[in-house]
Amino acid sequence: MTYTDTLQFGQVGTHEALSALNLLARVKPPPVSGGLPLGFTFDGEPFFFNPLQYHRDEITGGTSMLVLGSRGSGKTTLLKTAAAYESLLDNRATGQRQRISVDDTRSNLGSEDRREAEWRSFIEDYLGSSHTSLSGYKLNILDPKMKLNVEQQLAILQTLCQIVEDRKLTSSERVALIVGLGVLDATAPEAASPVLLQQVIDTLDYQKYQQFQDRIRDQLLDKFTSLSQRQAANRLLEGRRNMSSEKFSEACSTISEILLLLIEEYDGIFGAEHSLHEKLSAPVVGLDFTQLSESTIPLVEVVVNAWRDSALSRDDFSLTTNCELHDENWSRWESLPYARAMITRLKHIRGTGTRIWRAMHRPGDVEQVGSEGSKVRELARNSLRETDVVFVGRMPKAQHESLRVFRDIPDNILGRLPGLGKGQFLVLIGDNWPPFFVQVMLDERLLEASYTDSARDRQL
Questions:
Q1: Backbone angles phi, psi at 36, to 5 degrees
Q2: Residue 344: CB partners within 8 Å, gap ≥ 6?
Q3: Do 52 and 7 meet the contact criterion of CB atoms below 8 Å apart?
Q4: Tens digit of pLDDT for each residue in 416-440?
Q5: Cβ-based neighbour number of residue 238 at 10 Å
Q6: What is the pLDDT of residues 351-381, one digit of tens each?
Q7: pLDDT at site 428
Q8: What is the pTM of this model?
């Protein structure tokens, strides 16, 4: 049984008022057996939203959603409405609540004209959970509680080291990192941290390199059941190794310096004193990034996603998310590691049942990423193609043509977009289901916990 099979939506609300749909005309939402009661169609029919069923019924290719619209159209409130309903559901894989995750990267003026993280009130006051500020945190990338294997540790450290140096590691530097991780794993796996790893690599000598290679050789030879084959392979491996003592020493010195920069720079967040395992395993995961620099935020998100992907790869649901919310994060696509990690995640969730909601003003936002022909812009554009459901709020006519990146939308439907009110959206589900309009229903408490444009106007 797969994660998708075990993770189902329980019904929220009643479907008695939902009339049978004309499957030939298909001018209304796809029929579903359960889902989130997000509101009503413009024809007055209840709108139950179930991206998992759309995926199972092959109406969509996955469970990623994008919310578009001008300022004040209700994008953030739609995300909060979906998250509020998701938080009421059970995860049948674990028997516990769905895990809702929010990476909070913007701050706005609150009710008393004080700056606060945009989602704090919603997470604390509406969902009754804790909102963790990462200011002052010192994360342990190699946190033993996250149970990364050596290969996963190497992948994440190599990515971060390449960001610090703004280049790819040389083969010798990569070997130094591998040997250091191997020594750390063999001697003190429960104390693993980038701080300890930096010290280990700083003290590595050529003998440690030889011992590491000998261990790999012995493991390889142990796989031969035939004595003659083992002896033949051993003779092949008896030659002098290509890595010289001087070359290895130089590579260790460079990696040690890079790790030291990683630890000391980037708001000091990779200083390895705190674990996020308890926070990430809570039913509601609210991480406040607002006090971190723009260069630090995407790196932390890369690390958190690596932890979650590692857990999912071993069928460990303690860290996996059921619903992720990313509010207007296009600027973070300037970071190539973030862009690559996000595209990988959007592809990865197709087989997991995780719902990812993203919000941005318009598809053209991706054209602000990088320069024409750059890898980051290509990945940002690809992120639009990885979207399975699109909610389009109020949108000026000048932006209508850009919406055709998703599908061919009739002109008469596009013509209605400038007149949409707050909470009103055109919904595109998959490639073939005809578009339809909905009015998202909001309650007063949720509105109070939502971001208001007037609050932002006061601070400008």
A1: -90, 125
A2: none
A3: yes
A4: 999 999 999 999 999 999 999 999 9
A5: 7
A6: 788 899 999 898 888 888 888 989 989 998 8
A7: 96
A8: 0.81
